[in-house]
Description:
The chain is built from ten helices and two strands. It has helices at about 5-20, 30-35, 40-45, 60-65, 110-115, 120-135, 140-145, 155-160, 190-195, 220-225, and strands at about 140, 210. One heme C binds near residues 61, 70, 85 and 160. Keywords: Signal.
Amino acid sequence: MKHPITYLLAVLATVAFFSGTAIADTYEGRAKCSSCHKSQAKAWKDTAHAKAMESLKPGTRKEAKVKAKLDPEKDYTQDKDCVGCHVDGFGKKGGYTIETAKKPLAAVGCESCHGPGKNYRGDHRKAGQAFESKGTTTQRKVVADKGQDFHFEEACAACHLNYEGSPWKGAKAPYTPFTPAVDPKYTFNFDKMVKDVKAMHEHYKLDGTFVGEPKFKYHDEFQASAKEKTGDKKDKGKE
Ligand code: HEC
Ligand code: HEC
Ligand code: HEC
Ligand code: HEC
């Protein structure tokens, strides 16, 4: 018979496993986020991330592809060694698949950075309503516990630092062909890149619905220079 402690540990592990799957992170695609966050969605469309699928088409980015020893005339849009980092949630629950190729999951969208949204987006609605009606704030921890990412670094690293010899410990194939060895401009520096307007959507002023930790380290800095949002769903019908 198993030692009682071993048995207890096994039971605890099983409980942890099942409570883990009960809130399993599921991707839904950017349409869900964009219907409320219209300002960010519009700004995102102009970013490099929004065009990530274009780069996999034949005849695009020829010079960069040749330099990385890729075939500039090849269609890479259905290549499993490529699409993983050019779409949302590849190989994960609800994420992009080559067979179904859903448009709201193609390109690097909201959930690639903010985390798969199925479990937390409902809380955004609730939090927004509570704030609007009674001024009640919601702790960020509530949505962080349901998979919303407030740190971003690991999320970026999974695509940008995924190559052989990378300083990032999680690196595993398929790797990005665009590494600092190909060109030093592909060196990923989080603190610099997270402020790069070519790739990041613009920031818009929040009402302050969510409070507390975990708060992103540049949150206050971004909010200090944020624009007024326009046409977001929450504002509709106010006039
Ligand atoms: C799902 C993978 C993925 C994630 C997650 C991701 N990126 Fe990217 N990123 C890309 C791809 C692919 C491109 C290239 C898009 C193109 O040009 O086709 C890119 C481009 C960029 C660029 C533009 C680089 C240039 O050449 O000017 C910056 C800056 C950048 N990302 C920063 C970030 C930051 C910061 C994060 C995290 C907050 C992040 N990315 C998260 C895949 C990702
Ligand atoms: C591990 C993630 C990952 C994989 C796998 C991946 N890419 Fe990317 N790709 C990126 C990132 C990150 C960038 C942005 C690099 C930067 O500009 O700093 C990028 C950028 C690109 C670019 C734009 C480069 C430029 O300078 O304009 C092209 C083209 C591209 N990828 C094609 C491909 C092709 C083709 C494959 C498959 C053979 C592939 N990628 C596989 C992550 C990946
Ligand atoms: C490449 C990563 C990345 C992608 C893709 C991305 N975001 Fe963001 N987003 C960020 C970062 C970083 C912040 C700053 C977080 C903070 O200040 O707390 C942010 C902030 C926000 C905010 C807070 C207010 C603001 O404007 O700063 C909202 C709302 C938001 N994003 C929605 C979206 C939506 C909707 C999409 C998809 C259409 C999206 N994001 C795509 C990285 C990303
Ligand atoms: C039903 C509308 C709705 C949906 C759907 C929704 N949100 Fe929100 N979200 C809100 C409201 C309301 C706030 C609070 C805005 C404020 O304080 O100004 C918010 C806040 C945020 C913030 C800021 C958090 C902070 O640190 O203060 C981010 C980031 C964000 N949402 C991203 C997303 C992403 C990504 C999705 C899709 C997975 C999404 N939201 C879906 C309504 C929504």
